[in-house]
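Exercise 7. Given the encoded structure of a 156-residue chain, write a plausible sequence.
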């Protein structure tokens, strides 16, 4: 069985994240989404439990995808789930440099895991969680950035 993990801070999950999850779910037998509290990121809008609930709502129609909160190292999450791959989305060259360093660190910590990078399609490449938070803070609808069925207004 080929198992992949897809980590992120998901504050909140967006259509960009869901695009990657759907494509990973088509490539691997099982995808475990790792919802990281990511203490390094400031100005978080949603609690870890809310982020997890939003991710679970977004992936409800994908039978081989599950989600879990994980405050520890990603490499340890990969070991725990017997994962052979870490999936990440890449939008641009800035993402690429960041991902390259992260992939190298994870390889040092858990040499059996490979990082697989999927290119984000142009129609969702401009979407980011911080954009969603900013538009939401000004009281505008963010429905077009989010997976169907997710209404962030219920969480505020
Ligand atoms: N399409 C559009 N946008 C995307 C996207 C896609 N496919 N993929 C990511 N994004 C955006 C997100 O919306 C987010 O936007 P923001 O910066 O405005 O909030 C940004 O890209 C990155 O967020 P995300 O993908 O959620 O991941 P992250 O970079 O916040 O996650 C972790 C980082 C959690 C993977 C990393 O910190 C980690 O592994 N932490 C655990 C500790 C550890 O193991 N450290 C050592 C490893 S180096």
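Solution.
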């Amino acid at each position: 069985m080929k198992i992949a993990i897809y980590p992120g801070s998901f504050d909140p999950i967006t259509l960009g994240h869901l695009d990657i999850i759907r494509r990973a779910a088509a490539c691997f037998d099982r995808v475990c989404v790792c919802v990281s509290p990511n203490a390094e990121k400031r100005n978080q809008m949603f609690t870890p439990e809310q982020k997890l609930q939003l991710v679970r709502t977004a992936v409800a129609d994908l039978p081989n995808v599950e989600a879990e909160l994980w405050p520890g190292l990603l490499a340890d999450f990969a070991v725990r789930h017997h994962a052979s791959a870490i999936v990440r989305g890449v939008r641009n060259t800035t993402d690429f440099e960041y991902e390259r360093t992260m992939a190298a660190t994870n390889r040092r910590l858990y040499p059996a895991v490979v990082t697989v990078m999927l290119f984000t399609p142009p129609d969702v490449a401009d979407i980011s969680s911080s954009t969603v938070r900013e538009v939401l803070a000004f009281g505008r609808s963010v429905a077009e950035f989010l997976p169907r069925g997710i209404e962030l207004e219920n969480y505020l």
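Remark. The helical segments are 15-27, 48-58, 74-80, 93-109, 129-137. Students should compare their own answers with the one above.
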